[in-house]
Design a protein that fits this description.
Length: 126
Amino acid sequence: QVQLVESGGGLVQAGGSLRLECLASGRTFSDYPLAWFRQPSGKEREFVAVTQWSRWGGSMTYYADSVKGRFTISRDSAKNTVYLQMNTLTPEDTAVYFCAADPSGSYTSADSYDIWGQGTQVTVSS
């Protein structure tokens, strides 16, 4: 079974940056896609980004339109960690951010994931 632990959240001013980290353990790190989701207060959990190793080498990534060009997902197999670098943050990015692993269906649907971290709060002030 995979366990996920997020860190790196906090309070930042609009226009600033944060880097979230998700440490994975319990299975071979390269075996499964890893994703970030977020859940603003009172709203549903939404897809942010996903990364998957490519059989041709390197990794594939996919982003929600709302974060494309501002957020970057990456993974370090040696550290069993996936990162989310968030730049040019806006108050609309305020949410609890969750790491998720090994989807059974669509990579962008929260319903496809059974393995989640505990979440880390990101608050962007205007």
